[in-house]
Design goal:
The complex is a heterotrimer of chains A (283), B (251) and C (956).
Chain A lengths: L4 H12 L15 E5 L7 E7 L2 E12 L10 E8 L13 H16 L10 E3 L3 E13 L4 H15 L1 E3 L1 E7 L2 E6 L6 E3 L7 E8 L2 E4 L3 H6 L2 E8 L2 E8 L6 H28 L11
Chain B lengths: L1 H4 L20 E5 L7 E7 L2 E12 L13 E8 L15 H15 L10 E11 L4 H16 L8 E8 L3 E4 L3 H6 L3 E7 L4 E7 L5 H37 L6
Parallel strand pairs in B: 4-5
Antiparallel strand pairs in B: 1-2, 2-3, 3-5, 6-7, 6-8, 8-9
Helix pairs in contact in B: 2-3
Chain C lengths: L1 E9 L5 E9 L37 E4 L1 H6 L1 H5 L6 E4 H10 L1 H12 L5 E4 L17 H19 L5 E4 L3 H9 L3 E3 L1 H6 L5 H4 L23 H10 L2 E8 L6 E6 L6 E4 H5 L7 E6 L24 H13 L10 E9 L4 E6 L7 E6 L7 E4 L3 H4 L2 E9 L8 E10 L3 H11 L9 H4 L11 H6 L1 E2 L5 E5 L8 E7 L5 E8 L1 H4 L5 H9 L3 E3 L2 E3 L4 H7 L7 E11 L5 E18 H9 L6 H22 L10 E5 L6 E6 L4 H24 L5 E4 L9 H10 L8 H10 L7 H13 L4 E4 L28 H13 L12 H34 L4 E10 L3 E6 L4 E6 L11 E3 L4 E4 L2 E3 L4 E9 L7 E8 L10 H10 L1 H18 L1
Helix pairs in contact in C: 3-4, 13-26, 20-21, 21-25, 22-24, 27-28
The chains are: A alpha+beta (283), B alpha+beta (251), C alpha+beta (956).
GO molecular function (chain C): 3'-5'-RNA exonuclease activity; endonuclease activity; enzyme binding; RNA binding
Protein name (chain C): Exosome complex exonuclease RRP44
Keywords (chain C): Cytoplasm, Exonuclease, Exosome, Hydrolase, Magnesium, Nuclease, Nucleus, RNA-binding, rRNA processing
Chain lengths: 283, 251, 956
């Protein structure tokens, strides 16, 4: 979608007036839908729909060997795939740049020990650990990908069930794990402080959150902040424009505030989800 | 021999409780996304597929590819990395995906009235969310729905179905992943069920000529059954859309 | 309806996957009960006529079984007293998961319509399917599912009664609470009308431990302890092999150790049974011993009494010695990982009263088994089959139960049955389903048949077989066709015309694989109608054949080969002897005689050519037992006579097989069924080379050709039988020839060593060998007279088939030998005879003697086991025994007296005594002299009796 100058001006004026294209105020989010347990054969999954943005996240776990320099930690890996269903531009390797950017941002947001405790994924120091794959599939792009992805990832990790390890048999270099094969006998991951990302978008002189596709095009620059609990875990400036330090600080504050509100809303929603619902794309 | 025998119990039930000529549960929905011109979601048992159609639109990437008498049908098959039980490394670009893309294109070219859109292109993208046997068939069926949702003229439905042989004797249709693993060869057929024409046929292993005919016939019957299900879904969808615009009662 | 099953599974590489499977729930599953009018009926073997009569319940009823009943009490279920049994799918799956052999047995019962079993697919039925609760163990879930089905049946068919049998007390009690009629199998069987015989068959696992009884064995370690011990290297695992001579000794073959580990005594063996996979604990090196050399037999009678064992143990300990160089790792069994218990053949030990009886297995390496029976009196006269259930710590012997009786001990039929069972030969009657595949009589040749086949009825064909042969599968002809050329035809019965692939008949034949010949019984691979009539190429009858026709020149060079299906009429079915006489009788000039003469001439050329290429002439003494046709007792035992015509027929069969092998491999490079004979490893030839060296011959073994030549050269004019003996030895060096699928091996491995041909198969005896049927089918495809079918072209399936054929062939061979041995024993019972023999091997304390007349090989002991003789001097270098001025070499002719020792009814043995050369103080005078002396001198008879006494002494 490309906008002409007049359209851009219209968007800009709306932001100035705190009355955006779809009637929202600057700090408002579009409606969201969240479902979990949508991918049955994954250990955890979630689908988040933020207006027209559609993100599907599935978590798979495998047994792996910890990195030698971090022998007490498990592994967490993010993989983003931009489906061509979202836009023909993503066909082939077209979406790779965007995918890598999102994945990297997620990795750095989760790297902090405060945000996500990897030591809990370690089974046997230096020998065995869980490797958690978080696979993100972008099905439709309606703007504000980072926020949607971070919420979906957090929900999916919350949903994840890690089989309980009952015992470890060590025989020289050969390690055998005695893992519970009963489904209900699982551990949940601790995602209390898992980061929530908020994209703060500067349009004209004002900052907004949750930009739509049209608003993203009018933006001179934007900042993605990942907030874990009450701390920032990563900050990323995207877009071509430049920001004044004062604007930057202001945006950070805005992001921080909104992120905490968003996190609360997410928890409220997760608590309401009942298990065993027949969900999915058929709704 | 004994391995094959297990596919069908004495009272004629398959491992999942189906009879040999029963399809898996098919559920589908048209118009699941707003961005593409047409989209559809289809579940065939546990195999879940999303399909999106863009176009007809201008040929992308240089006009030189454009055809003066027909539209280019561009298909891409992709599997989510979490779609299989074992995590995949890449969603697409491997040989199997490329092959499936080509087969999909072959089946769709046979049915789209592409001569109506010279100099243009139609994109069909399918994304497998859960692979549990019969991926190709689910993709074809979902793509058909997405094309209908996009309003692209088709000669008729194109439906695909798999079939195999249980106990070396009884043909069975719509093979699940479990049956694919322990069973023998699988026959995949994409057909135009109304005219009975076959647009694509593929066999996974050697098949003895003696069995081919009865297995093929079963697969074709499966295609016809699928068409009926798809047709109902389309009619329901059109009625839903229609009712919001007020012409539902005219049908 | 639709639901999913989710479970986590560990993969091979140690990862964990979450699997999801679909699970459909239906409303069209038949309950199986004939009186039901609510379900849509499908085939069900449940019967409204069959009655389960149990005195605890005064009504007819259906039975629903719990998994544990099936797993533990299969022998009871095998009896056809209990019927109308509903097997729930949940139970069936669990059984399959737990024990495949039990599952197979259950499956065959379910398949049998007369047993009235029905599988109810409860887990897919809408009313009986239940969801697994959160936190519910799989076991509890299955129990709940079973009870749910019981309740459903009661609700579904209020007029019928259902009884739930379970040995799980917990499950039974809950069932009773829920209002289900439930009881244990023991309770049920004991109240069963006609159930007395069944009670013996109840498996006894539920022994209660009496605190007063003394433990006979130390406890086994727990599984975890065992696994940890193995991992840490403190314990070793391996297969336990019991000693045949000493019941208190055994060996454990541990892979990581060079020598087997010796285990001795009650605590050392600790309830291991031959074949079990056990865990051993090694002693310290200073406690290691060498294998004992004493013979100990278990004389135990009473269950409680272990004094006698303790005595024997002391005896063993006393004899325990530490010979230098023979000390082997020693240890004790501390646990058993896998039992290899099977069903055992044997007899009851006499002299015991009460319900507890001891069973002595025929296999000496298996301990006696304690069984409970109320018909001991009767069973004592019978050969039995018994199986082991458990071996608790407090019991001297394993506990088992009686499975069935085979028949009277010593009876021909019983012994045949034993031979067949011990060799796993399928020998039941052909089922109705199989018989229904047979062609209807009268069988006529239709016009269509005539069009498809080459009509050879005008050609003078004849067959040559042993006397009394009714399954004639080959016939021959030979006629001049001008220009000095001959047309030679081999015509093989066209069995594949009658046995179509995939039919019940075909499957049965494939499973039997071969016809088994016992001395007085033939166990056919295909029903009699085919084997002795429609397929058999009988004289004067029109029959279908598969012909292999060559054009040859006078020198037996093949100019061209054809294969086709044909119709033939054999002019005459001759015996080898008749054919020989026809050839020799110069006055006969009819076409048959001429034909036979030409064949004979060609065969000689072929044979010469074959031998020049390095084919081996091997020998093994084959005997024929003359049976009295009325009493079925052996009249005489003799070596089979061989005529020139034997070799003539053989030559052409070989030629046909080779020609066919080439043809089918050409057309089916991947799935041709061929036969190969692997080159034996050189170490196999050691005894032969050694024996040759002692005689002054250099036996070369580098190639088959050299071996054949050196065997030909090893002739001693003064001992004509010696060459045959060498060939007998050579035969024993060989490996077994086997069938294989061509695609499974490299081309150079196809070689047939004995025949020295690169390719070989079996084509010429389809009536009695299944491999030939497959070869016929392949050949029929190549010559366009038949079409293929999927399994024929499947390399994997052909490979599996070959394995079965090889196994059955081997077993058939062993069974045949066992039958000959039994009948030879029967013949010699009570006889005392002097016979000519040859020394095959010279051993330290014995001579191995071959008696060619009876094809017997027996041991002549020079001294008691473990002792050295004071008469004989053993020379290890030259392999000789010297007594005074008599020196005994290998291959020396001797005269021996032969008698049968029947002390052990299950293991009769031949006893030999030396007659000549005469060695004073050891040899016995010839029988003929004794008879003379009997008349002449009373005094001398006494001395002969002394000889008898001495012999008796030696037996003990």
């Amino acid at each position: 979608m490309s906008l002409c100058e007049a359209e851009k001006t219209f968007v800009l004026h709306g932001v100035e007036e705190n009355f955006r294209l779809d009637g929202r105020e600057r700090e408002d989010y579009r409606p969201m839908e969240l479902e979990t347990d949508i991918v049955l054969h994954a250990f955890g999954s979630a689908r988040l729909r933020l207006a027209n943005t559609d993100v599907l996240v599935a978590v798979k776990i495998e047994i792996d060997v910890p990195f030698p320099e971090r022998s007490k930690e498990g592994k967490l890996e993010f993989f983003v795939d931009c489906s061509a269903n979202a836009t023909p531009d993503f066909e082939g390797r077209g979406g790779e740049d965007l995918a890598v950017e999102i994945a990297n941002t997620l990795s750095s947001a989760y790297r902090s020990k405060h945000a996500f405790d990897l030591t809990k994924l370690c089974i046997l120091k230096g020998k065995k650990c869980w490797k958690v794959y978080v696979d993100i599939l972008l099905l439709e792009c309606g703007g504000n990908l980072f926020d949607a992805v971070s919420l979906a990832v957090k929900a999916a990790l919350w949903n994840t069930q890690v089989p309980k390890v009952h015992g470890v048999n060590i025989d020289g270099n050969n390690i055998e794990l005695n893992v519970s094969e009963e489904l209900y006998d699982c551990d949940r991951l601790d995602v209390k402080n898992a980061p929530v990302m908020v994209t703060v978008c500067k349009i004209g002189e004002k900052c907004i959150v949750d930009p739509s596709v049209a608003e993203e095009q009018c933006s001179v620059g934007s900042i993605v902040v990942a907030v874990s609990g009450d701390k920032f875990s990563t900050v990323l400036q995207t877009g071509t424009g430049s920001l004044h330090p004062a604007t930057l600080m202001e945006s950070l504050k805005l992001g921080h505030r909104v992120a905490q509100r968003l996190d609360e809303a997410l928890w409220a929603t997760l608590r309401q989800i009942k298990p065993g619902q027949d969900v999915g794309f058929l709704k | 021999m004994s391995r094959n025998r297990d596919l069908l119990s004495k009272i004629g039930l398959r491992l999942d409780g189906r009879r040999p000529d029963e399809l898996r549960r098919i559920r589908c929905k048209l118009g699941v996304f707003t961005e593409p011109d047409g989209s559809a979601y289809l579940e065939q048992g546990l195999t879940k597929v999303l399909a999106a159609v863009y176009g007809p639109h201008q040929v992308r990437g240089g006009r030189s590819k454009a055809q003066h008498d027909t539209a280019i049908i561009n298909c891409q098959f992709s599997m989510a990395v979490f779609s299989t039980t074992d995590r995949k490394k890449r969603p697409r670009g491997d040989r199997k995906s490329t092959e499936l893309s080509m087969h999909l294109q072959q089946a769709l070219e046979a049915v789209i009235k592409s001569e109506l859109y010279p100099w243009s292109q139609i994109d069909v993208y399918v994304e497998v969310l859960h692979a549990d046997g019969g991926i190709y068939t689910a993709c074809v069926n979902a793509a058909t729905l997405a094309l209908i949702d996009a309003g692209i003229p088709l000669k008729e439905y194109v439906c695909a179905c798999t079939a195999s042989l249980a106990n070396n004797d009884v043909p069975m249709i719509d093979i699940s992943h479990q049956e694919e693993i322990i069973g023998g060869p699988t026959l995949t057929v994409a057909a135009l069920p109304m005219s009975g024409k076959i647009v694509l046929m593929e066999m996974s292993q050697r098949f003895h000529m003696d069995h081919l005919e009865k297995v093929l016939n079963k697969a074709l019957q499966g295609c016809k059954d699928i068409r009926q299900i798809l047709d109902e879904a389309v009619r329901l969808h059109v009625r839903d859309i229609g009712s919001s615009t007020g012409w539902a009662n005219t049908s | 309806m639709f639901t999913t099953k989710v479970f986590i599974k560990k993969t091979r590489i140690g990862n964990f996957l979450k699997n999801v499977r679909e699970h459909y729930i239906r409303d069209d599953i038949f309950c199986g009960v004939p009186s039901c009018d609510k379900c849509t009926p499908v085939e069900s073997f449940l019967s409204s006529i069959h009655k389960n009569e149990c005195s605890s319940y005064d009504f007819n009823h259906y039975l629903i079984l719990d998994t544990n009943v099936i797993l533990d009490q299969m022998d009871v279920l095998d009896e056809d007293v209990i019927g109308n049994v509903i097997i729930l799918h949940t139970v069936l799956k669990e059984v399959k998961h737990r024990s495949l052999p039990i599952y197979k047995r259950l499956h065959s019962i379910i398949e049998n319509p007369s047993r009235h079993f029905y599988v109810f697919t409860n887990d897919h039925h809408k009313d009986t399917y239940i969801k697994q609760n959160d936190g519910e163990l799989v076991n509890d879930y299955n129990d709940r599912s079973i009870r749910k089905s019981c309740l459903w049946y009661m609700d579904h068919l209020p007029k019928e009664k259902f009884i739930f049998l379970s040995d799980d007390v917990n499950n039974r009690n809950i069932a009773l609470e829920e209002g289900i009629l439930a009881c244990s199998i023991r309770e049920y069987v004991s109240h069963l009308v006609n159930g007395a015989a069944l009670e013996d068959k109840l498996s006894r696992k539920d022994y209660h431990i009496d605190s007063n009884t003394k433990d006979v064995f130390p406890p086994h370690l727990t599984n975890v302890e065992l696994l940890n011990g193995i991992k840490e290297g403190a314990l070793y695992q391996g297969t336990f092999r019991a000693s045949r001579d000493n019941f208190l000794e055994g060996f454990v073959n541990v892979e990581s150790l060079d020598d087997p580990v010796i285990v001795q005594g009650r605590t050392g063996l600790n309830r291991a049974v031959d074949g079990d996979f056990v865990v051993v604990n090694l002693f310290n090196k200073e406690d290691w011993i060498s294998p004992s050399e004493i013979v100990l037999e278990d004389d135990g009678v009473a269950e409680e009494n272990i004094d006698e064992v303790e005595k024997k143990e002391r005896q063993l300990k006393k004899s325990a010695h530490k010979k230098k160089g023979e000390i082997k790792p020693t240890g004790r069994v501390v646990g058993i990982i896998r039992r290899k218990w099977r069903q055992y053949c044997g007899i009851l030990q006499g002299g015991m009263d009460g319900v507890y009886q001891l069973f002595i297995p025929a296999d000496k390496s298996i301990p006696k088994i304690r069984i409970e029976t109320r018909q001991a009196e009767f069973l004592r006269t019978q050969k039995l089959i018994v199986t082991i259930d458990s071996w608790p710590r407090h019991s001297r012997y394993p506990h088992g139960h009686f499975v069935r009786a085979l028949g009277k001990i010593g009876d021909q039929n019983t012994e045949n049955e034993v031979v067949l069972l011990e060799h796993d030969v399928p020998h039941s009657q052909f089922s109705e389903e199989v018989l229904s595949c047979l062609p209807k009589l009268p069988w006529i040749i239709t016009e269509e048949d005539e069009q498809k086949r080459v009509d050879l009825r005008h050609i003078d064909i004849c067959s040559v077989d042993p006397p009394g042969c009714t399954d004639i599968d080959d016939a021959l002809h030979c006629r001049p066709i001008g220009e000095g050329r001959l047309e030679v035809g081999v015509h093989i019965a066209d069995v594949s015309h009658f046995i179509r692939p995939g039919t019940a008949l075909d499957l049965e034949a494939a499973s039997r694989a071969t016809t088994v010949y016992l001395v007085n019984k033939r166990i056919d691979m295909v029903p009699d109608l085919l084997s002795s009539n429609l397929c058999s190429l009988r004289g004067g009858e029109e029959r279908f054949a598969f012909s292999c026709v060559w054009e040859m020149d006078e020198n037996a060079n093949i100019l061209n080969t054809r294969f086709h299906k044909s119709i033939i009429r054999s002019r005459s079915a001759m015996t080898y002897e008749e054919a020989q006489m026809t050839i020799d009788d110069k006055t006969k000039t009819d076409s048959i005689a001429e034909s036979l003469r030409s064949l004979n001439k060609l065969a000689k050329i072929l044979k010469k050519g074959r031998l020049e290429k390095g084919a081996l002439v091997l020998a093994s003494p084959e005997v024929k037992i003359q049976m009295d046709s009325e009493t079925m007792e052996p009249l005489d035992v003799e070596v089979k006579k061989l005529f020139e015509t034997n070799s003539m027929v053989e030559e052409f069969m070989l030629l046909a097989n080779i020609s066919v092998a080439q043809k089918i491999l050409e057309d089916f490079p991947e799935c041709a069924m061929l036969r190969r004979h692997p080159t034996p490893p050189t170490s196999n030839f050691d005894p032969l080379v050694k024996a040759g060296r002692h005689l002054g011959f250099d036996i070369k073994i580098e190639s088959g050709k050299q071996l054949a030549k050196s065997l030909d050269d090893a002739v001693k004019p003064d001992n004509p039988y010696m060459n045959t003996m060498l060939r007998i030895l050579a035969t024993r060096c060989m490996l077994q020839a086997v069938y294989f699928a061509s695609g499974s091996l490299q081309k150079d491995e196809y070689f047939h060593y004995g025949l020295a041909v690169p390719l070989y198969t079996h084509f010429t005896s389809p009536i009695r060998r299944y491999a030939d049927i497959i070869v016929h089918r392949l050949l029929a495809v190549t010559c366009g007279s038949d079409c293929t079918y999927p399994d024929l072209l499947d390399k994997q399936k052909t490979g599996n088939l070959c394995q079965n054929l090889n196994y059955r062939n081997r077993m058939a061979q062993y069974a045949g030998r066992a039958s000959v041995a039994f009948n030879t024993h029967l013949f010699f019972k009570g006889k005392l005879q002097d016979e000519d023999g040859y020394i095959l091997y010279v051993r330290k304390n014995a001579l191995q003697i071959l008696i060619p007349k009876y094809g017997l090989e027996c041991t002549l002991f020079l001294a008691h086991k473990g002792e050295t003789s004071n008469i004989f001097e053993y020379n290890e270098e030259d392999q000789t025994q010297k007594a005074g001025d008599v020196v005994l070499h290998s291959f020396d002719p001797v005269k021996v007296r032969l008698s049968l020792n029947s002390d052990n009814i299950q293991h009769e043995k031949f006893v030999l005594q030396l007659v000549s050369p005469c060695i004073s103080g050891f040899s016995v005078p010839p029988l003929s002299e004794i008879e003379k002396m009997e008349v002449v001198d009373d005094k001398k008879r006494k001395s002969a009796n002394d000889g008898h006494k001495k012999k008796n002494k030696k037996r003990s």
